[in-house]
Amino acid sequence: ILTCVINNFFFFLSSVYLVKIDVILPCSSKKKDNLTHEVFDWKKNYDKEVFLYVKGKHYNNGKTGQDEDFKNRVDFFEDQLQFGNASIRIKKTKLTDSGIYSCRLFPNLDQEQTRITVNVHIY
Predict the structure, then answer these.
(1) Structural domains in the chain?
(2) CA distance 65 to 118
(3) Is residue 53 within 8 Å of 39, Cβ to Cβ?
(4) Model confidence over 28-78: pLDDT tens digits?
(5) Which of 21, 67, 90, 104 would you call most buried, defined as having the most Cβ atoms within 10 angstroms of its Cβ?
(6) How, if at all, do strands 10-18 and 112-121 pair?
(7) Is Flavoprotein one of the keywords UniProt gives this record (predicted)?
């Protein structure tokens, strides 16, 4: 189930996923800015650090601060940064992954934000 509503600054998604599958949470710059030398930040429930990218530094190459629940479970699409794509993949979803995820982009001080509600269920 995927529903989308687009507002001026926010892109909202509501998704339902099964446990133990990989999910992709979409986020991209409206202007398709190259994000390689920019900053984007994914959080869960507004405070848990899911993934942070700062001009080439991120949690998968030594950056510290990622919430323990997401260590070794989150990837991004480095080859897509040049097209403004800041989407992430969460591997092997768990029931505890349910929540509100937000992606904040900071290119050229033109802050954009995506919010996604993820519900993980066992079927």
Answers:
(1) 2-121 (2.60.40.10)
(2) 22
(3) yes
(4) 887 788 999 999 999 999 899 999 999 999 999 989 999 999 999 999 999
(5) 90
(6) parallel
(7) no
